[in-house]
């Protein structure tokens, strides 16, 4: 049994009943499809939102993704967790939505390695953790789409650069440089927000 790190509800106690629900959904059972939607919608909405940075767009992508999930359910073969399979569809739909919205989302030039994220806050910083997290959240949402997408996939979703290059259809070096640039930009933005409110 593989360990699921995708933050979806597939703990050990759900594995067998989940398989039954999936099989029922494959046979067209609407209640089973609804159960799958309820189990995964919130986590997948969060994934779409982290990529798209717009709640309405994320909701639209979520709906499109689940339509796709249910139309392709017969293709699901249990080689990965169901959550990972759904997440891949959501990520692909999110990327497609970004590409439609902005033709040139992804930047291609390599850059020097970025500073570590921790340097965004000085050791003398006495602000509380909530304020720091708020600054980080604000900076993340101010990033250009390409940076935010790579940063979210790497730092928040746990994908490595090889996986990101496959998902986004970019070079590994581009993923690395965009992550580096995203980190530098977040550091700059958080420092700017600290000094200028």
Explain what the structure shows.
The protein has 197 residues and is mainly alpha-helical. The protein folds into two domains: 12-101, Orthogonal Bundle (Rna Polymerase Sigma Factor, Chain: A), CATH 1.10.1740; 117-196, Winged helix-like DNA-binding domain superfamily/Winged helix DNA-binding domain (Arc Repressor Mutant, subunit A), CATH 1.10.10.10. It has helices at residues 15-26, 30-52, 55-71, 82-101, 129-142, 145-156, 161-168, 172-196.
E-strand count = 0
Outline: elongated
The number of helices is 8
Report the structural category. mainly alpha
Spatial gap, N to C terminus: 49 Å
Indicate the proportion of strand residues. Answer: under 5%
**CATH class call of the largest domain:** Mainly Alpha
Low-confidence stretches: 1-14, 103-127
User: Which sheet architecture does the biggest sheet show?
Assistant: none
**Any idea of the CATH topology of the largest domain?**
Rna Polymerase Sigma Factor, Chain: A
What is the domain tally? 2
CATH superfamily of the largest domain: RNA polymerase sigma factor, region 2, helix turn helix motif
What share of residues is helical?
55-70%
Gyration radius over CA: 19 Å
Mean pLDDT across every amino acid position: 78
String of helices and strands: HHHHHHHH
CATH architecture descriptor text of the largest domain: Orthogonal Bundle
């Amino acid at each position: 049994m593989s360990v699921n790190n995708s933050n979806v509800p597939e703990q050990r106690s759900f594995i067998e009943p989940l398989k039954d629900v999936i099989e029922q959904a494959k046979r067209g059972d609407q209640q089973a499809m609804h159960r799958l939607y309820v189990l995964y919608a919130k986590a997948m909405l969060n994934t779409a939102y982290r990529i798209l940075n717009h709640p309405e767009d994320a909701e639209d992508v979520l709906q499109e993704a689940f339509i796709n999930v249910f139309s392709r359910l017969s293709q699901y073969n249990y080689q990965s967790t169901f959550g990972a399979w759904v997440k891949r569809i959501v990520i692909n739909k999110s990327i497609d939505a970004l590409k439609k919205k902005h033709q040139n989302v992804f930047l291609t030039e390599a850059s020097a390695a970025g500073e570590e994220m921790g340097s965004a806050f000085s050791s003398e910083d006495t602000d509380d953790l909530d304020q720091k997290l708020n600054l980080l959240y604000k900076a993340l949402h101010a990033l250009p789409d390409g940076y935010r997408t790579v940063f979210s996939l790497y730092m928040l979703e746990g994908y490595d650069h090889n996986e990101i290059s496959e998902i986004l259809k970019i070079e590994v070096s581009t993923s690395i440089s965009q992550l580096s640039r995203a980190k530098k930009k977040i550091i700059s933005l958080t420092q700017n927000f600290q000094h200028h409110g």
